[in-house]
Sequence to fold (94 residues):
Amino acid sequence: MGKQRKIPMRICVGCREKKPKRELLRLVRTPENEVKLDLSGKMSGRGAYICRQAECLKKALKGKRLEKNLEHPLSEELIAELAALLESGDGPAS
Fold:
């Protein structure tokens, strides 16, 4: 009998719920101070997680929670990319 593997949990900055890391989208502020969408979940830098629901994105943007967690302002292009990704069927499953 093998051991149960531990499932990494992360908190969504929108709804503040703890969920498995693979169910969330990760935004990362790279060491070069660029904010990017990290679909692999392995980019180096400061990360913030958000559910794959448009409602969570709205909450996170309204309270500027993503910007506070990443300690960097978000570009309009990134916000538009995130919104389009979430509206087109909850985004890609990692």
User: Anything to note?
Assistant: The domain at 9-87 is CATH 3.30.1230.10 (Hypothetical Cytosolic Protein; Chain: A;). The first helix runs from residue 54 to 62.
